[in-house]
Amino acid sequence: MWKFLLDPVFQALAFLLTLGALAYVAWDLYDEARDPTPASHFRARRREPVREAPPPRQRTHVEPSVEIWTDGQGETRGRVRRGPCRGMRLEEMSREQCEAQAIYARSHDPAAAVGLDTFIRHKFGTQRRYEPRPTGSLTRAQALAELGLAEGATAADVNAAYRALIKKHHPDHGGSHARAARINQAKDLLAG
Q1: How many whole angstroms separate alpha carbon 113 and alpha carbon 107?
Q2: Partners of 69 in the beta sheet?
């Protein structure tokens, strides 16, 4: 094997291959200096015009149309920065002014529109009306109708109907106190 490496023909061939490789690297570096576009050694180079990168997007700060906060006493306060009611304080605005500002905010500042709609609901929304509790007692037929049952319903049917209706009509979930009281009275009558 050492004889093969010491052979002058093999050494001349190795010298020529090394010289060719160095010439290729030199040519590649020279060509790359003239044309800075990257190219792979595995595919032919294409001469394409260098495209300029688009300018970076300009980020502009957009002032919110409404600022809303809660003060130390838990009161919601705010100030209008842009729109038809510019410069006004939320707590001094009428319902019509708040709604006009909300219309503007929906098209120009959706985040502020959500906060403003909530403010309007809390400040001007209708208060929950509590209906008086029923004073009279229910008959068995009325109690069955209240729970949506037919004559001959079992205690399990009464409990199942009661649970379904009280989940739907409980005052903590937006239901009416009067309706919840009637459902409770009907269950008490039928279960007892």
Answers
A1: 9
A2: 77
pLDDT lower than 70: segments of the chain = 1-2, 32-50, 58-62, 126-135
- Mean pLDDT over the full length of the chain: 81
Cβ neighbours, 10 Å, residue 11: 11
Among 102, 176, 190, 111, residue whose Cα is nearest residue 146: 190
Write down the domain spans for the chain.
Answer: 66-124, 140-191
Residue 80's identity, in one-letter code, is V
CB 180 within 8 A of CB 168: no
* Residue whose tokens read 């090394």: 18
Helix axis angle for 140-147 and 155-169, nearest 10°, is 60
Residue 176: CB partners within 8 Å, gap ≥ 6? 130, 131, 169
Query: Which of 111, 97, 99, 96 has the alpha carbon at shortest distance from 65?
Result: 111
pTM, 2 dp: 0.37
Residue 77's DSSP bridge partners are 69
CATH of 140-191, one of 3.10.450.50, 1.10.287.110, 3.40.50.2300, 3.40.50.720: 1.10.287.110
